[in-house]
Amino acid sequence: MRAWWTSLAALLGAGCVTHVAVDQHYRGPTALPAALVAPFDFPEAPVVVAEQETVRNRFGFSVTQIALAAVEPGGPPIEFEYYDVRADAPTPVVVLLPIFNGQRIVTRYFARYFANQGWRALVLMRDRDPLAQLDAPEDAIQANLAEYRRVLDWVEEQREIDPSRIGLFGLSFGAMDAVMLTALDSRVDALVAGMAGGDLASLMMSTSYRRIARTVNRLVDDGGMSREGLHEAMEGRIATDPLTLAPYVDAGRVLLVLTRSDAIVPFESQQALRKSMGAPETLYLPTGHRPSVVYFPMLRSSAFEFFERQFRGEFIAGR
Q1: Angle at the Cα of 168 (from 103 to 25), degrees rounded to 5?
Q2: What is the pTM of this model?
Q3: Structural domains for the chain
Q4: What is the tens place of the pLDDT at every residue in 114-133?
């Protein structure tokens, strides 16, 4: 089955996937204003592991379910799966952020691959989705990012992990979170973000993703508000946005994956984010959002190769 997927991806990808190096004129990220970081600067506190249980053992690695105590007292625990490999020295780690609905089948697919290459990996979980919490999307965004930063605190404390080689991986909404986290936290050494867009308010109004589109239609139909009015209201409620934070990400440490015929995260939104970031190294896929799954075998090896280059300090410049 795995060989079949690899063969299909190779067949479909022949002559279709375009690789673009980082812009040769890129001069580095904009300095991050302290005011943007302030909402995420929590007082230093010990990382408390509330629960820990090994749930799976595989050849070469094990999977442990871990729950950290909440960032804020009384909040929900921060849960993730830890893919721990058998190694004699500290290894790199890849932290995989959840997609919109929190389903882990996609992130687990990539985590297993990284673990099979001898790297440790974390698959994070999330119950709150900002674009599904339209009454307070900014609260959800900030809470998610605060939890992800606490997970990085935990990563730093693990002796078997090399804290100078932390990779961040995200697809779809997980990629948008990953862009924002990379801008806000210098501990992220390299980022692979697939199908990420910017301007969340506009994305909410234009996406074909049923769960969001139905919520928008219901608010318009039942709330007596026009689509233009709802868009304006969302712009006022969302302050932390990938498009806003993208200029503060070092494009030289980023691999973007864009899907040319995407209706869930429109290609124009993905391109706008790339431009705002400074035109990092990019893979263009000829598919939409969900059909991109046929390229996952290629994407996981491309992501590993990119992380490996970054961890070695190598850099591919544009022409």
Answers
A1: 130
A2: 0.91
A3: 2-10+55-312 (3.40.50.1820)
A4: 999 999 999 998 766 665 66
